[in-house]
Design goal:
This protein has four helices and four strands, in the order H-E-H-E-H-E-E-H. It has a four-stranded mixed sheet, with helices on one face. Helix 2 links the parallel strand 1 and strand 2. InterPro entries: Glutaredoxin-like, Glutaredoxin-like_YDR286C, Thioredoxin-like_sf. This is Glutaredoxin-like protein. Belongs to the glutaredoxin family.
């Protein structure tokens, strides 16, 4: 009886380790959605509300363009915020284009699922 229990434990431990290995191998990094913003920014607040249903599909990174270290972004986007980049590439500005965001997220998710 002890021999059987020992083998069952080994089998269970091996299966669990294999499951964890498969989960971590299949897990892909979430894309980064960068929001260029300032305080106050009512349009940015509105945009974040629109993004709420999608928040589990990306990592939101906010960049305050008024900080000295972000002066290049300030010069570029001071009249256009909110501005969004997805994985470092310009995506949209002034308002959230939900269909464009959805299309790009699906594209990245399919690439991730395919191992690319």
């Amino acid at each position: 009886m002890l021999w059987f229990q020992g083998n069952s434990m080994q089998l269970a431990k091996h299966s669990f380790q294999r499951l964890l290995r498969n989960l971590s191998a299949s897990k892909t990094a979430l894309p980064v959605l960068t929001l260029f913003t300032k305080d106050p920014c009512p349009l940015c607040d509105e945009a974040k509300e629109v993004l709420e249903p999608y928040k589990n599909r990306f990592i939101l990174q906010e960049v305050d363009i008024t900080l000295p270290e972000n002066s290049a972004w300030y010069d570029r986007y001071k009249f256009d915020i909110p501005v969004f980049h997805l994985n470092g590439q310009f995506l949209m500005m002034r308002r959230v284009d939900v269909s464009k965001l959805e299309k790009q997220l699906q594209k990245l998710e399919q690439q991730g699922a395919g191992g690319s």
